[in-house]
């Protein structure tokens, strides 16, 4: 059983930054961040394979977002810079055995944290 707890969402102006955190317990081979804007499907933002250390990003956030981990407390982070209004969404932390971009294979999910970017 894996438990995930996100924090760090909020409101920011376009061009600003936010850092999301996800505290995890249990086996977390692949950790990922997804987001879901109102009326849209959930989409992958970034994922991190713990064994290899490989980071993967959606094209829409490359160069602006960075996923990282802090092993000491089993926490992953999503540093979001140069935020745009189109980044507005609920952001979810997820864990699963395979680092794929689609949400289906991820077995465990956090409750979500809202990010709102105003123009």
Describe this structure as you would to a colleague.
By secondary structure, this protein is mostly beta strands. The chain has no helices and eleven strands. The chain has strands at about 5, 10-15, 20-25, 30-35, 45-50, 55, 65-70, 75-80, 90-95, 110, 115-119. The protein is globular and about 40 Å long.
Portion of residues in beta strands equals over 45%
Note the overall shape. globular
Overall number of strands: 11
List low-pLDDT spans: none
The end-to-end distance, rounded to whole angstroms, is 40 Å
Rounded Rg: 13 Å
Could you state the order of secondary-structure elements as H and E? EEEEEEEEEEE
Helix content: under 10%
The biggest beta sheet reads: 7 strands, mixed
Q: What integer is the average pLDDT?
A: 93
- Which structural class is indicated by helix and strand composition? mainly beta
Number of helices: 0
Question: How do you describe this structure in short?
Answer:
This protein has strands at 3-7, 10-13, 18-25, 30-36, 43-49, 54-57, 65-70, 75-80, 89-96, 108-109, 113-118. With 119 residues, it is mainly beta.
What are its keywords?
119 residues; mainly beta; seven-stranded mixed sheet; four-stranded antiparallel sheet; 11 strands
């Amino acid at each position: 059983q894996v438990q995930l707890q996100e924090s760090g969402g909020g409101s920011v102006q376009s061009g600003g930054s936010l850092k999301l955190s996800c505290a995890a317990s249990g086996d977390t081979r692949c950790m990922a961040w997804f987001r879901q804007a109102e009326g849209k499907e959930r989409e992958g933002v970034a994922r991190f394979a713990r064994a290899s250390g490989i980071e993967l990003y959606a094209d829409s956030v490359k160069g602006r977002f960075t996923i990282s981990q802090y092993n000491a407390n089993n926490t992953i982070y999503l540093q979001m810079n140069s935020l745009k209004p189109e980044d507005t969404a609920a952001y979810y932390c997820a864990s699963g055995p395979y680092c794929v971009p689609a949400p289906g294979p991820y077995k465990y999910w956090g409750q979500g944290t809202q990010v709102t970017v105003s123009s």
